[in-house]
Amino acid sequence: GDINDDWVVEIEKGDRRDKESSKRLRTLRTHFKLRHLNTGCYLFSHKVKLPEWGFDQQEVTCNKNAVKANSLWYVETAAKHPQLPADAPKVNYKIPGFLSKFWELQRVMWTTNAGLTDRHMYDSRPSTWPRLRRGINFWVKDHRQIYLIGNPFVWWSSTASVITYIIVRGFLLLRAKRGYRDFDNSED
């Protein structure tokens, strides 16, 4: 090709457990930016997927003021590339622990729920949760679903705890307004 095909790899960060990943490109470990040599713009992508005509892929463009989070890349696979030597080291995904899986689930649920705007037949509102009138439909695809139902003991006891806290807090605030000093630790 010509100069329009040339990109500069700028390593942004590597995995702290793999010191080599901060110095050279390593599969799954090195996060990098691609700067176009001729124009100086950075390759970036949007989080929104294209419609079906775009095969549900993301649009990739070049921008001099690209958002950092959308302009970071990493190599996910390097299998059977003609320029890759046969003895190239293999890198595998890290096996996540319980807490990292738990936080990933929380992030996914938060971003998914934040993007919901329309009601649907499987939705549930917080007002129905304490009475266990309806569970939470987490995922549906091809007649399969993940449906979260509550444990009555946990849900009812936590609801009772919240109501009890509100009542006790209100009672203590009312007493404080009337001049009672229930929590003073002064000694006479």
Automatic annotation (TrEMBL):
GO-annotated molecular function: dolichyl-phosphate-mannose-protein mannosyltransferase activity
Pathway named in the protein's UniProt entry: Protein modification; protein glycosylation
Catalytic activity of the protein: a di-trans,poly-cis-dolichyl beta-D-mannosyl phosphate + L-threonyl-[protein] = 3-O-(alpha-D-mannosyl)-L-threonyl-[protein] + a di-trans,poly-cis-dolichyl phosphate + H(+); a di-trans,poly-cis-dolichyl beta-D-mannosyl phosphate + L-seryl-[protein] = 3-O-(alpha-D-mannosyl)-L-seryl-[protein] + a di-trans,poly-cis-dolichyl phosphate + H(+)
Keyword Coiled coil appears in the UniProt entry: no
Location within or outside the cell: Endoplasmic reticulum membrane
One GO location term (cellular component): endoplasmic reticulum membrane
Coiled coil spans: none
EC number: 2.4.1.109
Pfam families for the chain: MIR (PF02815), PMT_4TMC (PF16192)
Domain (MIR) ranges: 22-78
SMART domains hit by this protein: MIR (SM00472)
Alphabetized UniProt keyword annotations: Endoplasmic reticulum, Glycoprotein, Glycosyltransferase, Membrane, Repeat, Transferase, Transmembrane, Transmembrane helix
Main location: endoplasmic reticulum
Main enzyme class: transferase
Role, per record: Transfers mannose from Dol-P-mannose to Ser or Thr residues on proteins.
Protein name, as recorded: Dolichyl-phosphate-mannose--protein mannosyltransferase
